[in-house]
Amino acid sequence: MEAFSRNGLRFQVVDEGPAGADAVVLLHGFPQSSRSWAGVSRRLVAAGYRVIAPDQRGYHPQSRPRARRSYRLQELVADVVALVDAAGVDRVHLVGHDWGGGVAWMVAAMRPDRLRTLTAVSAPHPRAVVNAMVTSQQFLQAWHVGFFQLPWLPEAAIRARGGRYAMAMLKRSGLDDDLAKEYADRLLADPGRLAAMLRWYRAMPLDTATGLRTGAVTVPTTYVWSTGDIAIGRRAAELTGRWVTGPFDFKVLAGVSHWIPEQAPDELAAHILDRIGWSDR
Questions:
Q1: Is 98 a catalytic residue?
Q2: Calpha distance 273→182 (Å, rounded)
Q3: N or C: which end of the chain has fewer CB within 10 A?
């Protein structure tokens, strides 16, 4: 499968591994793409799984609606369900990083019937984040979430000094020089992509009630957090287990930044395989 369609939008997909094997779906975050999973995917395919990684809503010209309401959580969840349907499978092992992790939590809460397991990476349960914002420094650590909801200013900042500001911001978050430049160049190369990426954040006020009502997750779940993550603090990470009623593991990667799929693909793949293997026992 190279693509799937939903409501007139066409999503590009990387689909690797045996077609008849259990499927693992990988959801990227901001400002990544399906390619950010390359290191993780190789190990999962080598272990015998089918691995499906889409470019999410807004990241490709054919899947880029202009209205911010088109980026509400219910639409993002429906995209994942449509992907699972198009893949021809009943249930999948779902993995999400950053914004992809946020979507994965919502899929697990709203459509647990389509999941075998959940592995959330660098994205705590939404209610754990809310709790941590009033009991720790999480509000300050997530300053960019509010900034990216502002009109025009985030675009201007990202483009400032020919993109050097964007590159410096990405390096400060933990990316190495090459990946920081790659991601910054991608932000600047296509103004439509940048605007669509930011609509994920600008749609958040429309979803406040949805996030606060996010229910407990019943599917077997692993949450992976890294000590070098400048956006997600320990408090939100440690609270996440409160909102998982199914089997739960909390894994900590010491010395790794927010960018776990790129920087620690082997360790992350091992945790994903552990979760998958536990569910298969």
A1: yes
A2: 29
A3: C
The first and second tokens of residue 133, run together, are 């914002």
pLDDT, one tens digit per residue, over 122-151 is 999 999 998 888 777 887 788 888 889 999
Residue 202 lies in a domain: no
Looking up tokens 């290191």, which residue turns up? 39
C-alpha–C-alpha distance, residues 191 and 38, integer Å: 25
Identify whether 201 is a catalytic site residue.
yes
How deeply is 178 buried, as exposed, middle or buried, from its count of CB atoms within 10 A (0-12, 13-18, 19+)? exposed
Catalytic residue, candidates 60, 97, 258, 271: 258
Whether 196 is in a domain gets the answer no
What does pTM read for this prediction?
0.96
CATH of the domain at 108: 3.40.50.1820
Per the CB < 8 A criterion, the answer to whether 202 and 68 are in contact is yes
Q: Is 167 exposed, middle or buried (0-12, 13-18, 19+ CB in 10 A)?
A: buried
Burial class (CB in 10 A: 0-12, 13-18, 19+), 155: middle
Q: Which of 49, 59, 71, 201 is catalytic?
A: 201
88 within some domain = yes
Tell me if 68 is assigned to some domain. Answer: yes
Among candidate residues 15, 22, 79, 98, the one labeled active-site is 98
How many domains is the chain built from?
A: 1
| CB contact at 8 A, 200 and 68 | no
What is the span of the domain harbouring residue 97?
3-138+213-279
Q: Does residue 59 have an active-site annotation?
A: no
